[in-house]
Amino acid sequence: MSNLSQEVAKRRTFAIISHPDAGKTTITEKVLLFGQALQKAGTVKGKKSGQHAKSDWMEMEKERGISVTTSVMQFPYGGKLVNLLDTPGHEDFSEDTYRTLTAVDSCLMVIDSAKGVEERTIKLMEVTRLRDTPILTFMNKLDRDTRDPIELMDEVEDVLKIACAPITWPIGMGKGFKGVYHLLRDEVILYQSGQGHTIQEKRIIKGLDSPELDEAIGSYASDLRDEIELVKGASHEFDQEAFLAGELTPVFFGTALGNFGVDHMLDGLVEWAPTPQPRETDQRVVQPTEDGFSGFVFKIQANMDPQHRDRIAFVRIVSGSYNQGMKARHVRIGKDVRFSDALTFMAGDREHAEEAFAGDIIGLHNHGTIQLGDTFTAGEDMKFTGIPNFAPELFRRIRLKDPLKAKQLQKGLIQLSEEGAVQVFRPMRNNDLIVGAVGVLQFDVVVARLKSEYKVEAIYEPINVATARWVTCSDDRKLDEFQRKNQDNVALDGADRLAYIAPTMVNLNLAQERYPDVEFHKTREH
Ligand code: GDP
User: Fold this and answer.
1) Right CATH number for 279-377 from 3.30.70.2740, 3.40.1550.20, 3.40.50.300, 3.30.70.100?
2) What is the pLDDT at residue 524?
3) Which residue from 42, 158, 235, 460 lies 20 to 30 Å from 225 (Cα-Cα)?
4) Is 23 annotated as belonging to a binding site?
5) Residues in domain Tr-type G (predicted)?
6) Of all residues in the chain, what percent are helix, strand and coil, respectively (each to 5)?
7) Is 256 close to ligand 1, i.e. is its CB under 6 Å away?
């Protein structure tokens, strides 16, 4: 195997999807702990200890106790190199989350075992379905009173339409949580509470029939034997092919807070999750082991380091390798650029990357020339596809306090929309600026950033817009007519694409019926 093939074979790039509060941040910390990246995992968001989790960077996020940013962490585990892409859990930043899911090869779904499948998880699973991303499942919070584990798996199968293959099975729950039985290894791993911050020796009992088990957990042992028999009969066996096709998920039980079970999941991840996968471009499919470098921008982030007001463009490397000082073609602007000081993300600390390979993420300093969805190649003119914008659901008119700064405002908004921080619509018939967001918090972020980065003070006013769709039509004449007859409802977005803004859903439906040749899109490709 060539060096590149070996490096690619080592990599596992994944993200965590979950409903807020299911435990994503806590799991991230434990995962890093196992990756030996942090000696003692920081407590989530400093709520208890004042120590901030390493993945939280922005001031706002500290204040509000939510993740605004997407960060990247790389760590070694089980002889492999794992890239974990953190996704903002708060629903207000779901667009970032969606785009991050285009940059991973597998996902870990975390479920609060007391609550089961929640609304946000359903939405995120829909997004992973677009690419049939393989899913691992962690049933969290077994140290609490949870729902019946069989019922939980049934719910995942019914609601999310994915078969469940239990890899571990819980013994008791809440105060009576004793540990898990590993179905594939035929061993019981015993849980001790109060060990949340360290990696400890776990007591392992080999074999479900071992008398040692009866000694250790008493009457739970015979219940467990009965239950496992039932579970084996009633559930799916793990099947690698079905997992890779996104049709079956291996299920692990544990408690992130108690630091129990996360390692079993990681073992599964490095053993089964796919190595960096090929990606499609408008020309051809690109394989990770191709020598030529290629990658796409899935996220642009500002203010990571308050010392430097820089913006970082996160690039998923699709093929080849990065090394410092290399040149790459910036396809959209048709120029070769030099990557002089890209960043890598070893356990949340930004470092200068010497080398990175397909499957890794690098961060490029962006001085306004890089946009979401941009492709970099070794010279080939091609563009990676499938990095979408989502139609916003919330709209406000934005207005300046000082009307002389109109140019500044427009520039700021367009740049922020190129980053994906927000979307902007400029109606054709007047000079309004309409800001569209997927979540309400985006509005606050935009005003704060306009003030600090563009020195403009802006305020919002309500506006009567219910939804927006990007419109296209293969017949230019019909599109012209559509624009003329709907002057009050057409607008250009930040990238000058035509959109229809509808005051009500009924209005949108009527427009769609009236203009069957015009296509209304809920997402727009970058
Ligand atoms: P996120 O919103 O998905 O990132 O969830 P967090 O990791 O912030 O967790 C939400 C809350 O659940 C926090 O108060 C955690 O301490 C708590 N939590 C996370 N995992 C567990 C667990 O295994 N058991 C219990 N009892 N609480 C947990």
Assistant:
1) 3.40.50.300
2) 83
3) 158
4) yes
5) 9-277
6) 30, 30, 40
7) yes
Cα separations in angstroms, 415 against 102, 344, 423, 437, 449: 22, 24, 10, 15, 11
Does the C-beta of 23 come closer than 6 Å to ligand 1?
yes
- For the chain, which residues score pLDDT lower than 50? 39-70, 347-350
Query: Is 374 marked within a binding site?
Result: no
Tell how far the Cα of 350 is from the centroid of ligand 1, in angstroms.
26
**Is 352 among the annotated ligand-binding positions?**
no
Q: Quick check: CB of 22 below 6 Å from ligand 1? A: yes
CA 27 to ligand 1 center in whole angstroms: 8
Closest C-alpha residue for ligand 1 atom 6: 23
Q: Is 143 in the pocket of ligand 1 (CB under 6 A)?
A: yes
What pLDDT, in 10s, does the model give residues 30-53?
888 887 655 444 444 433 334 444
Q: What is the pLDDT of residue 103?
A: 96
Report the candidate in 21, 473, 421, 64 with the shortest Cα–Cα distance to residue 257. Answer: 21
CB neighbours of residue 65 within 10 Å = 13
Question: CATH 3.40.50.300 spans which residues of the chain?
Answer: 16-32+92-272, 279-377
Task: Write out 134-181 in H/E/C secondary structure.
Answer: CEEEEEECCCCCCCCHHHHHHHHHHHHCCEEEECEEEECCHHHCCEEE
| C-alpha–C-alpha distance, residues 278 and 320, integer Å | 12
Show the tokens assigned to 240: 């690698």
pLDDT of residue 418: 81
Q: Is 137 annotated as a binding residue?
A: no
pLDDT on residue 366: 82
Distance between alpha carbon 379 and the CA centroid of its chain, in Å? 29
Report pTM.
0.83
CA angle 418, 503, 68 (to 5 degrees): 35
**Burial per residue of 320-334, b for 16 or more beta-carbon CB atoms within 10 angstroms, e otherwise:** bbbeeeeebbbbbee
Closest residue by Cα to residue 83 from 75, 95, 92, 94: 75
- The residue whose C-alpha atom lies closest to atom 7 belonging to ligand 1 is 23
20 annotated ligand-binding residue: yes
Q: Which structure tokens are listed for 183? A: 């179905």
Burial class (CB within 10 angstroms; exposed 0-12, middle 13-18, buried 19+) of 184: middle
DSSP string, 371-437: -TT-EEESS----B---EEE--SEEEEEEESSGGGHHHHHHHHHHHHHHTS-EEEEESSS---EEEE
Q: Write out the H or E segment, with its range, that includes residue 499.
A: strand 498-502
Per-residue pLDDT at 459: 94
Confidence at residue 93, expressed as pLDDT on a 0 to 100 scale: 55
Q: Ligand 1: which of 257, 262, 264 to mutate, judged by most atoms within 8 Å of the beta carbon?
A: 257
ipTM exceeding 0.90? yes
pLDDT score of 202:
82
CA proximity to 366, closest of 311, 416, 411, 421: 311
**What residues does CATH 3.30.70.3280 cover in the chain?**
391-525
